[in-house]
Amino acid sequence: MNQNYLLPFIIFSLIMSAFLLIYFGVQSRQKAKQNEAFLSSLKQQLIMSQRAAVEDSMNIKRKNAESLWFDFPVMGGWVKRVWLGFSLLGWQEKWRSRAMLLAAPCLLLGFTLGKSSQFPIVGSVLLSLGFFIALVFLLYRNAMGKHLKEFKQSLPQAIDSIVRVVKAGVPATNAFGLIANNLPGPLAKELALIDKWLSLGLSLRQAMQDSAIRVPLNEYRFFAVILVINQEAGGRLSDTLERLSETLRERQELALKIRAKTSEVRASAVIVAMLAPLSLAYMYFNSPKDFTFLLTDPTGNSVLIYAFGSVLTGLTITHFMIKRVIR
């Protein structure tokens, strides 16, 4: 890639980077404002007495790992969220072996395609890194989507079980272990973990706060807030949980309708996303000269950058449009 085509590539990369930084910065500020509003409203609703003694006797080692990466101003929050997601999926224990298994095919594919470029070493490393990040992102998003879907579907059933246990006269703090033994899916593991922390002496408020941080699901956070408010302020927990269960079922029905309405747009986005890699794969096997032209010739580099930039821009706009509809 000569200097005539390197400048447009650098300008395009800077524009996309600035756009992504601005977007994630606005999103982080909005989330911070929402969290502040949520905490202020929760403090107004709760009747809390000041506790002078601090519970230093229970020095419990949490599973939420601490890392220097979490302190980074831009990527720290994202890295922490992904690490908590790994904990929720059970990927933290063997993440190194998983990364090595994923890196091997990415390196093979990256060096296979990058060796024909004008800068073989740099191109191979960048392609391998890009393939690795894309593969990890797709696997993580797919696994987290399935996990949260099962979590959301079993949450109303778990709430109904808690309502029956509470109506039978059993305290809500003792209901987690009973329900976890009779409930399938990932929610059972989370309830069992909460029951474990409660049995070790952790307060219900702290246990539910930690659980709400681990599980990035608004419906589950509603459930956690209701339990904390009921413990602090009192009230009929069974009636509140019954209304929450009904609301969650209505939200699930609404989500299914939204997915049906947006199915055509999402299918179109998937088809457009697959066109570029499928076209390159077809060209690699059936027309090696044209494929080599895209990697070695400056004009081919420009065409390749323009194609991927256009597809990426279109997918980004489509993603934001669908996300606004779902919200």
Automatic annotation (TrEMBL):
Might you report a single GO cellular component term? plasma membrane
Tell me which domain of life the UniProt entry assigns to the organism this sequence originates from.
Bacteria
Q: Where in the cell is it found?
A: Cell membrane
Transmembrane parts of this sequence: 6-26, 119-140, 267-285, 305-322
The entry's protein name is Type II secretion system F domain protein
Upper lineage is: Bacteria, Pseudomonadati, Pseudomonadota, Gammaproteobacteria, Oceanospirillales
User: Which residue intervals define the domain Type II secretion system protein GspF in the entry?
Assistant: 159-284
Q: Which organism is it from?
A: Marinomonas posidonica (strain CECT 7376 / NCIMB 14433 / IVIA-Po-181)
Q: Carries keyword ATP-binding?
A: no
Keyword set for this entry?
Answer: Cell membrane, Membrane, Transmembrane, Transmembrane helix
Membrane topology according to the record: Multi-pass membrane protein
